[in-house]
Amino acid sequence: TSEWANQRFTIGNGKVYKDTANCPLHGGSYEIALVLEEKSHTTSEEAPEPIKWKSAVLQVGPVMRKAHEVWAVPLAILLIICAVGVAWFYSRR
Q1: Rounded CA gap, 45 and 47, in Å?
Q2: How far apart are CA 71 and CA 78, in angstroms?
Q3: What is the spatial distance between Cα 48 and Cα 90, in angstroms, rounded to a whole number?
Q4: What is the pTM of this model?
Q5: Domains in the chain: how many in total?
Q6: Residue range(s) defining the domain that contains residue 87
Q7: Residue pLDDT, tens place only, 48-62
Q8: Does residue 29 belong to any structural domain of this protein?
Q9: Where, by residue number, does the polypeptide cross the bilayer (predicted)?
Q10: Is 12 within a domain?
């Protein structure tokens, strides 16, 4: 309808729209399906084919680790190797 056109819609926000609940999502895999149909003005008109769309599988659950946390371990190992290398270099002098 025109009241929902060009509006942002959040899936799983827990709000009620007219008589339909937008229930919160729980952990798991989801697919979002959207079907748009045009209402015919008269019964004699043939309704156009509905527009159908389905999303890829969405995973809802704990947030993945951030990229800077993933690099912390290799960076620490590299610093240790550099420190050992510097200590070895100065011990040979």
Answers
A1: 6
A2: 11
A3: 81
A4: 0.41
A5: 1
A6: 63-93
A7: 788 899 989 887 777
A8: no
A9: 71-90
A10: no
